[in-house]
TrEMBL record:
GO terms for cellular component: cytosol. The keyword DNA-binding applies. This is XRE family transcriptional regulator. Keywords: DNA-binding. InterPro entries: Cro/C1-type_HTH, Lambda_DNA-bd_dom_sf, TransReg_Diox_bact_type. Signal peptide: none annotated. CDD domains: HTH_XRE. Residues 18-72 form the HTH cro/C1-type domain. GO terms for molecular function: DNA binding; DNA-binding transcription factor activity.
């Protein structure tokens, strides 16, 4: 979902990043929720961008996924930046352009 300005919302980008991390690690919703100390339903709502979790909750889920809060935040920021960049520009940008963008 995007804001009225057309930009993705933080909670949506965060949820997508958390879900991708969980899937890459082969972890179930229940397992990660249990490790983070939340219900599977609440974690599902975070992943779907329905809930706006507190910083403490984000840190707990990040820890349950064995990722640092800094790395998680940088990943979400990169996802948001990529969403703002037109596909044609991304297709033509080389590694130097992306290094400068970061």
């Amino acid at each position: 979902m995007a804001s009225e300005a057309g930009e993705p919302l933080w909670r949506d980008a965060l949820g997508e990043r958390l879900r991708r991390l969980r899937h890459r690690r082969g972890r179930t919703l229940g397992d990660v929720a249990r490790r983070a100390g939340v219900s599977p339903q609440y974690l599902s709502e975070i992943e779907r961008g329905v809930k706006e979790p507190s910083s403490e909750m984000i840190a707990a889920v990040a820890g349950a996924l064995d990722v640092t809060l800094v790395d998680l935040t940088l990943g979400v920021a990169a996802d948001l930046r990529a969403a703002r960049t037109p596909a044609s520009a991304r297709a033509h940008a080389g590694p130097t352009a992306w290094a400068l963008a970061a």
